[in-house]
Amino acid sequence: MPELPEAHTVANALNLFLQGHSFEKIEIFIDKLRYPLAPLLDAGLLNQPVLEVRRRARYIIIELANRRALVVHLGMTGVFRQSEPGDERRKHEHVIFHLDNGRQLRFECTRRFSSITVCELDAPGAEPECLAALGVEPLSTDFTAAYLYRELHRRKCPVKIALMDNAVVVGIGNIYAAETFFKARISPLRPAHKLTRKECAVLVETARGVLAAAIEAGGTTFSDYRQLDGTEGLFERELLVYGRKGEPCTACGTPITTATQGGRTTFYCPKCQH
DNA sequence: AGAGATACCTGGGAGC
DNA sequence: TGCTCCCAGGTATCTC
Question: Which of A131, A164, A184 lies at the terminal end of a domain, its last residue?
Answer without folding.
Answer: A131
